[in-house]
Design goal:
The structure holds two protein chains of two kinds. Chain A is of the alpha/beta class. Helix content of chain A is 34%, strand content 30%. Chain A has two domains: 232 residues, Rossmann fold, CATH 3.40.50; 86 residues, ACT domain (Alpha-Beta Plaits), CATH 3.30.70. Classes of the chains: A alpha/beta, B mainly alpha.
């Protein structure tokens, strides 16, 4: 399958009052046709800058961003506008024209490419139907809820039949329930229209819910990239671990105490490990925290436990878990 | 008050109305594009261009800092060139327009500045040209604010039109000056003042209503 985007050694440096700030450092990645690709990172990590290089709202300082084999930086203004017609974008702040009705907002993307009035009205109606807002066509955006506004923005983005949809923190201003609905809608659009979607977010839940692959951006660097299942079950980089695992808020209960993190990678999540441990070794552990998440229907999880006193017993416990296929690592507080 | 003066006041109201209307109209025809240029050529905007922005900004600032009365006198030769005479209502429209253009330009610029950058980013990401973005995204979005600014501008032009009376521009200002000031007819003075106040209030009220009706937020 063809790659929609190929990024090679992308750098972006801002100059502000003589001070230089590098927002992107040597980022190389591919986005494949038809996939939902997540880009996740803490705020300030450079992910918004990265997504803006994908439609050249930001110029790269060096490196190349190719869209279907075309280097975006080489395009003249007119060519760039033409390419932008096939790259739609939705935003955290929705960015609708508040003085125009919902349907006329949706029509904007068609009007820009010169679609005749009657055709675009018809198309806009279809789009509103897809996002489930047909009855709001003649309302003004101010009368809509956040989730509805984002649906209008999605309808506007889809109207011009783009090849790719960029979502810049599109659900970050919405509550979890509405976020879920918007994500379901994006997933549906991805499947029905074979539309490539790139999602920028700081929320793990968004990535685990709909993304096929994920790139983790940390401090301007591409820290990790891969299938969501792999990255979530076995994060390699520090940034990925920090995102995937909630930090451990506990200290050992005494100086000699030891806290470890167990990671379940999906195949063992139906085995009662702790109960088995007690039955087989007679040793007890203290569970400090635990959580699981479902990625594509498979359970992934982690557990923070405190090990019993003597060093020999601790080793027995660790060996027991390792033998069962869990990964065990020692953690300190806030790690 | 004699019938003669009453008649003069009625004519004065009409002259004031004509001066205000045409001067406002012409000042928007020139000032609106200037304001759009001031906005769009400033730093970080769609058509960023320091030279153009600096030159227009300079002209606007110079004309705006001249007291209107001085401008009236300075522009007499120019007015004669344009309308063939330098006194009368028609002649007064010329300096009124010139005086209002920089005010309109700044007012338009400040209204457009209120538009959220996100809207512009959305338009750009859809592949809109800068001109399209200005016409179909920025100006519609700024419309309530533009209308409100418009009412303020028209009221300012009305105030200026009274000054045009000094150089023979006619209108209520001339009547206030002729009868009220030079002939000590206090009743005429206060009547014209009251009419001017009512006219300004009507303009303001009309502008605010129009703006409110237009505001969909």
């Amino acid at each position: 399958m063809e790659n929609v985007y190929e990024l090679k050694n992308v750098y972006k440096t801002y100059k502000n009052d003589g001070k230089e700030f590098t927002a992107l450092k040597d980022v190389s990645l591919d986005v494949r046709e038809g996939e939902i690709f997540g880009i996740i990172g803490m705020s300030g990590a450079g992910k918004s800058t990265l997504v803006r290089t994908l439609n050249r709202l930001e110029e790269v300082t060096s490196g190349t961003v190719s869209f279907y084999g075309k280097d975006l930086a080489s395009l003249k203004p007119k060519e760039l506008r033409k390419v932008r017609h096939s790259i739609s974008m939705i935003f955290q702040g929705f960015n609708l024209i508040s003085q125009r009705t919902v349907i006329s907002n949706v029509e904007q993307s068609l009007k820009i490419i010169g679609t005749p009035r009657a055709v675009r009205r018809e198309k806009a109606k279809q789009m509103l139907e897809i996002v489930g807002l047909s009855e709001k066509a003649n309302e003004y955006p101010a009368r809509l809820s956040g989730g509805q506004k984002q649906r209008v923005a999605i309808a506007r983005a889809l109207a011009a039949d783009p090849k790719v949809l960029l979502c810049d923190e599109a659900t970050s201003a919405l509550d979890p329930k509405i976020t879920g609905e918007i994500l379901d809608l994006l997933k549906k659009i991805n499947e029905e229209r074979k539309l490539t979607i790139i999602i920028i977010t700081h929320e793990m839940s968004v990535v685990e819910k709909i993304c096929d692959r994920v790139a983790i951006i940390d401090n301007g660097n591409l820290a990790e990239i891969g299938e969501v299942k792999e990255v979530f079950s076995n994060p390699q980089s520090k940034a990925a671990k920090k995102l995937v695992f909630p930090s451990n808020p506990f200290d050992p209960s005494d100086e000699k105490g030891q806290i470890v993190r167990l990671v379940f990678d999906g195949t063992q999540s139906n085995v009662p490990f702790i109960a088995n441990l007690v039955e087989e070794t007679g040793l007890k552990v203290n569970i400090l925290s635990a959580n699981t998440r479902s990625v594509g229907g498979i359970g992934y999880g982690q557990m923070i436990i405190e090990l019993p006193g003597p060093a020999k017993d601790r080793q027995t416990v660790i060996d027991f878990f390792r033998k069962g296929g869990l990964s065990v690592s020692e953690v300190s507080r806030n790690e | 008050m004699s019938d003669y003066i009453r008649e003069a006041i009625v004519t004065g109201v009409w002259e004031t109305f004509v001066m205000t209307f045409f001067a406002s109209l012409f000042s928007y025809i020139v000032g609106m594009p200037l304001g759009v240029l001031l906005y769009s050529t400033s730093k970080g905007r769609l058509l960023e261009n320091r030279a153009v922005n600096f030159v227009i900004g300079l002209i606007v600032n110079i004309t705006r800092s001249l007291p209107f009365l001085i401008l009236l006198v300075l522009l007499i030769p120019f007015t004669r060139l344009v309308v063939g005479q330098s006194i009368g209502t028609t002649a007064a429209i010329v300096p009124l327009t010139i005086g209002a253009i920089p005010i309109v330009a700044r007012m338009v610029e400040s209204s457009l500045n209120e538009v959220q950058p996100g809207i512009i980013e959305a338009a750009t990401s859809m592949g809109a040209t800068p001109l399209y973005t200005i016409l179909h995204f920025i100006i519609p979005e700024a419309m309530p604010s533009l209308l409100q600014g418009g009412a303020i501008n028209v009221a300012t032009v009305l105030g200026y039109s009274a000054m045009a009376g000094v150089i023979g521009g006619g209108g209520l200002g001339a009547i206030a000056l002729q009868y009220g000031y030079y002939r000590y007819q206090k009743d005429v003075l206060w009547t014209t003042v009251a009419i001017l106040i009512i006219m300004v209030m009507l303009i303001q009220e009309f502008g605010i209503r129009l703006s409110k009706k237009n505001r969909k937020t």
